[in-house]
Every structure is written in C-alpha cells, then in structure tokens.
Amino acid sequence: MMRTVLFVCLGNICRSPAAEGVLKRMLADRGYDGQIRVDSAGTIGIHAGRAADSRMIAAAAERGYSLTSKARQIVRQDVTAFDRIIAMDRENYHNIMKLSPGVAKHVKMLSDYLDDDWPRDVPDPYYGGAEGFATVLDMLEAACPRIIEDLIAQN
Ligand code: 4NP
Known about the structure:
Oligomer: single chain
Strand order of the largest sheet: 2-1-3-4
Bound molecules: 4-nitrophenyl phosphate
Order of helices and strands: EHEHHEHEH
Strand content: 5-15%
Shape: globular
C-alpha cells in the first residue's frame, strides 16, 4: 500500500515545498521511488497556485534539489487522508489541530525527527536573508532520513 506524507507550513512557498523536494530526492536516492507519496500545503491560501519562492528554489538548487510544487491551502480532508502530517512550526501544528480536532496521533512536528539541539520550530525564512533558507535546508536534510525510517517502518 502506498504511504503518504504531507508537509505543512504557513504559505506553502518556502519551508514545506523545500521539505517535499528534499524528501523526494532522498527517497529516489534510496530506491523508494513511487512507494511514498509526498505533498505539501500551507495553512493560508494567499499564495495558492504559485511556484515556490525563487529564493527557496535557488537555495535548494545549490544543493541539488528541484522544487516543482505549486502552493495550495490545506483542507480538513487532508488531515485524515495522509498517513503523516508534518508541521514546520508550532503555529502550523496548532492550526492543523484546529482544522481537524482530535486526530493528533499522526500529526507531527519536523523537530520530532531532530535531536534536541535543533530549534523546535523551523524558522520562517520569508522576511529574512539568504542564511534563513540555508537553515531550513539544514534542518530538512537532518530530519528526512528519520522521516523515511518512520514511513518505511509504519504498517
Ligand atoms: P512558508 O513561508 O510558510 O515557509 O511558505 C512564508 C511564506 C509566505 C508568508 C509567510 C511565510 N506570507 O506571509 O506571505
């Protein structure tokens, strides 16, 4: 059975499209192509239909990731449709919970897949400089191997 994971941030143009791109590449590199469906969404819809932020695309491209997703807003049905929902920060997490109360078990934070010396939230890079985009990628590259283990182990 196909496993599914949805990454969620605020606008779906920076952090969660990058998460989608990093995880897809790592899955392909490990031979899991086509076994896990990876998607992303934002808690707000103002950027819906748009490609990822050009600064995020450029930072990802420097490390060999291609970001191809188009932004969309999360809907209530997503929360039950995916095997794993992975929020980038606590605000995203609480907004997912508000959308679909009582389904907390499979809703995670990215930092659940990181050691405690990383920040709890993936910092929103939208209003900052280039280093913010690099930090996002650092956190995603550290977390995605554990996300793969989690998805593969799951029954
Ligand atoms: P993201 O970044 O949640 O990582 O996609 C943001 C994108 C857009 C906005 C905020 C954060 N915004 O306010 O438009």
